[in-house]
Amino acid sequence: MSKPERIRQKRRDRCLAAFVLSVSFATGFARSEDATPASTPTTDTARIERLEKLLSTVMEENLRLAGEVHDLKRQIETRVPDAKDTALKRTAEAQTEIRQELAQPSRFPAPPPFQVTPVETDSADDVADLDSGLWDPMDLPDSSDVPYFTDASSASTVTRTDRFRVDYENGFTIVPLDPDATPFSLRVRSQNVFRYNGFARTESFWTDSAGNRIPIANDNYFGIPRGRIIFSGTALLPELRYLLNIDYNSVTNNPIGFRAYVLSYRFSDAIELSIGQSKVPGSREWLESAFAPLQGPDRSMATTFFRPSLSQGIWITGEPLDGWYYHAMVSNGFNTLNLAPDRLNDRFCWSASTWWEPWGEFGAGYSDLQNHEDAAIRIGGSYTYAIGRGSQSESDAVENSPIRLSDGTLITTPGALAPGVTLQSYDISLGAIDLAYKYKGIGVSTELYWQDLLGLRGTGPLPIRSTGAFGGFVQGGYFVVPQQGELYARTSYVTGDYGAGYELGGGFNWFFRRGRENLRFTLDGAWLDGSPAGQNRTGYVAGQTGVLLRAQITAVY
To answer: At what angle do helices 41-79 and 3-34 cross, to 10 degrees?
Structure first.
């Protein structure tokens, strides 16, 4: 017999007991009416006392049963709103009739005042506290999500759950109380950048390597270069994690796009296996950005030029030794996001990055928002090689940065390498080393890049089989207001066989929540000279020479 059935049986037994007591009361009263006048006063007094006790018992039992039936009915209605328990309904109606009958004036003479005698019960759990309206929450069906009442005078309910809690932890979360028993969780986050972008040119045109004369435009606009809604958590297994990142923006022809999906299984701290679509790990600043506390509104010009893009693949990450990390990936290509399978190359892109934090935890980003009391450094390196025939994605793809020659010319531009010849296939090799330092509000970092385009093949003869580029950035900042206000400066450059370009810039970061990167204002100014980088999220346009001004609010919640 289930617990609800046992409860209902118990209620029926009590109703039967009440009925028997009622009949006994009526019979006793009738006999008292038929008693001979010869009864002595002592006998009458004893009989009246017994009747008073009996009446007290009946009234108390009826009230208690009515309360229990009311609570049980409310419990079942809350748990299963559409349930039609005929027996319970009849019991409730009967109890209502009893209460109405008791409320009516009695045809019997009213007994003198008396004290209510407590009713003996089988156990303490059977006693209902009618004054407070509380009842034993253990006297419930087995389901753990049945609402219970905390105040008889209040219509509100509190939902009791033994499985999940809802909270805010850098995003709205639904978290299981026992991850092993219920391995499902969800976190919903939003990341947004609102930016003013202004550019004042000092040159009207630039000429690419194909001989095309391209105008340089002034810029003056507000935009949302990045917005994300991110769903993440665990599913099916405690060690199985997922992430879905939906991107929206106002600076491309594709305002809404699918940025990333990750399904990962954590074996240990040393190895976590992931599949999906994510960043090709060819650069430290690329991996750190874009919502970590960077020293500036976006990645540097050099990183924008050299870095790979997003791709589909499989990768592993981990910390095999204390302070030593790695990230290795096999993907479809260096820059193949959103390409149909028939446009992909027939060889994979191989990429790996590793870094070491020998003096303790370095923390996210390049700004010393953590205000390290002891110096921290990070030393790392990355290498990427993509082999074989392949096209590259359009610049409007999510976070895509097309491969260019060192003067900013897209490598697939007709005539870029030779008159009348268009590049059809190439291999790309990219190496990078990085170093960063933090101490008491000071953050200094650098990353150097070497890029080679190899095995160049086109629609006609090419005068070269390979070409290369070299570059990097150096930047540094200091919190003039600890963990809140930072001044910074940077320079980055790119040079190669087809030209060179550089930037000099600096600005101010203000973190509204001290020590937290969730809400930040950045004001940045930079001088660009022949920028070879072009990527619509960053504000850099290939060929620009002039002053670039960016002011933005970054909000992560």
So the answer is: 160
